[in-house]
Amino acid sequence: MGSSLSFFFCAWLALLAVYPALGAQALAVGQNCFPFGSAHLNGLKKPGLSRDEWWCPSDLQYGFMGFSYPLEMDNCSDPSNSLAKMNKDFQRMKSEFGATMVRIYAPQCRDESVWRNLLQAGIANNMAVLPQVWWGFEANQSLWKLTAASIKSVLSDPSMGPVAPYVFHSIAFGSEPIGDSVDGGPTQFTADLKAFKASVERFGIPVTISEDWDRPGIMSGTNWTGLGPVGQEIAPVIDLVHAHIMPYYHADIFPTVQESTIWPYFETYIPFLQQNLPGKPILISQTLWSSIQGGSHDRGFGNPAENIGNFTLYWDIIQSKCAYFKEHKVGWFVHTYDDSQEPGLGMIDDAGHTKMNFHPPVC
Prior knowledge:
Elements: H1 2-18, H2 23-29, H3 51-54, E1 63-70, H4 83-97, E2 101-105, H5 113-125, E3 128-130, E4 132-133, H6 143-155, E5 171-175, H7 186-200, E6 207-211, H8 229-234, E7 241-244, H9 259-276, E8 282-286, H10 308-319, H11 322-328, E9 330-334
Parallel strand pairs: 1-2, 1-9, 2-3, 4-5, 5-6, 6-7, 7-8, 8-9
Helix pairs in contact: 1-4, 1-5, 4-5
């Protein structure tokens, strides 16, 4: 316990040093709420508010939220899964870019230690964490159960459990689980989604899936006309939307980054979500572009425009749309934080340098 207190004290002092860059956001919100307002976590002490009172309302959840944070090393002792590494990265996300949330992606370590470390890093930096139940890159379709159990173990832990719902914003049950046909297909997946949601209901943490809804005949109808059959089954179960809006994977339609073509895709996608998933807060949990040819993810169609020029143009467009995101109450994440586990997609290269002038405004 003594080492944990020392860690939190040191981290708190470091956090104070970066607050001047973030004060404008807290003042702009003008509310004692987390994570956009003036509310602060205090070690493992449970805040003296209900969870609903603690979290900022969803109508303040717009603009840049933070980064997708890949944890793709299945060795739980790997440095990438350590508290020291997470804390260092969270500090930079907040101080340099103004991030308030961290979306976890592909947590291959199935042990509860990874969630304990993420929880402590979130507390130390006063940032929200979005856990993810992850199926994996392997053929084994039961590994997700280990991740789900490890998250629930931390939520039930006597020391960490009470504060966890004040750090864990929402839980994504899979990343593109429908697109990847995990769990034997949509029928079994939906049943497991319902069961998982019921199992964490007592903690009050919203549950969703992180998915691309632009899947005609499956998640969406033809030409954006209503939900597809699987979308209709998923919609009433989820509490909020973690959407993957990714023109990158439509290389036949968007061979290069041009605002005149890229942005209308967002302007079609977001109203579709609002109309067909009414009342559910929307986060763009995954949007991306690669800065290198042949990086983590090929576009297909000859992989056009996989370069730093188009990467920069893409994120310049997203950064410039603050007014739209504020009007529509939509938040977004950069996928991903750095290139260490998703080469080409990260905002930070392998040398630790930011690839472009990335300073998303506070909307």
